[in-house]
Amino acid sequence: MPPPTVGYVVLRAQPVPVIADLPGRVAAFETSDVRPQVNGVLRQRTFVEGSTVRAGQVLYVIEDAPFRAAVLNAEGLLAQAEANIRSTQLQAERFRRLAAVNGVSKQDADNAEAAAAQAKALALAQRGTLNSAQVNLGFTRIRAPISGRIGRSLFTPGALVQAGQTNALATIQRMDHVYVDVNQSAADLLNLRAAALGGEISQSAPGVARVQLVLPNGVLYPIEGAMRFADVTVDPTTGAVDVRADFPNPNGDLLPNLYVRARLVQGVRKQGLLALQTGISHNERGEATALVVGPGNVVVQRIVKIDRAIGNQWVVTDGLAPGDKLIVDGLLNLHPGAKVNPRPFPAG
């Protein structure tokens, strides 16, 4: 029987992107809980649940009658204290002139000066009380601390609220930009840095990577993001490093806590190898194997390591080298050591 004819492709080194495919969760760019800062009864809610609110917008109104009364009382006490300043100052001036001609004792003059100073201090304290009452009156209008989408309201008009309470009235999340938090193996990160330092991988900048998202329905998110932050501490329970990416979210498609797959394009391997998937199989131990045309047109089996798929090709990290003739056609009943008649396989 003549040797079987097989088709092969010659492997060539080429630039291959280094991609890490990692699970991640979406987090809001900014999150703020809306909480009361004074005690009182809610009189009004002024927003629609799920709508977009602006920073400074009034969200709730607390019954303000007691706070307006406190302001009026503080204003009256301040006016009384300021009037007392004028009286004590005039008396202190008279006593000062009389003391100069021994009309009153020096002690009486000193007491008048002290009374005038005490009147000024009392007015200052009353002014602080008035400012505090005005601040508390302003707190009866609960305003949005940030701009963003507001969730459901946990309290309704008529409810008693208190400063420092455990439950927030509502939560606002800024979602025009979002974060995607992923965990990357510390070992993979160290290998990447070593390869970059050795010149095997080129990076646009250290710690910078393009990021793509695959949504839960398998659709690729149309806007690319960028890695902004990598933690400096390894999680002792998982051996992973927290990585955070930033994504524009103009249409609000990325919701907080959404599960996604993040593809981090961390660089380009200058001398990468791509092998057609038809030329890679697995043995009974689950190892990836490849058949190549060896010297004398004899089939040689290689144990290889593959990283991921790019189109219809595998990224090969070990076991094959540039110039190897990978058999991709005529593999049926082919075994190592067989003599073959190799033919170049059409690239298309």
Features:
20 strands; 23% helix; 348 residues; Elongation Factor Tu (Ef-tu), domain 3; single chain; alpha+beta
In short:
With 348 residues, this protein is an alpha+beta fold. Helices cover 23% and strands 41% of the residues.
Describe it for me?
- The structure is a single chain.
- The chain has helices at residues 65-100, 106-138, 186-197, and strands at residues 5-10, 14-34, 40-45, 52-53, 58-62, 141-143, 148-150, 160-161, 170-185, 201-202, 210-214, 225-234, 240-248, 259-276, 280-282, 288-293, 299-310, 313-318, 325-329, 341-344.
- By secondary structure, the protein is α+β, with helices and mostly antiparallel strands.
- The chain has three domains: 5-26 and 176-344, Efflux pump adaptor protein, beta barrel domain (Elongation Factor Tu (Ef-tu), domain 3, Beta Barrel); 38-62 and 140-167, Beta Barrel (OB fold (Dihydrolipoamide Acetyltransferase, E2P)); 65-138, Helix hairpin bin (Helix Hairpins).
- The strands form three sheets. It has a six-stranded antiparallel β-barrel. Strands 6-5-3-8 form a four-stranded antiparallel sheet, with no helix packed on it.
- Helix 1 runs antiparallel to helix 2.
- The longest helix has 36 residues, at 65-100.
- The chain is elongated.
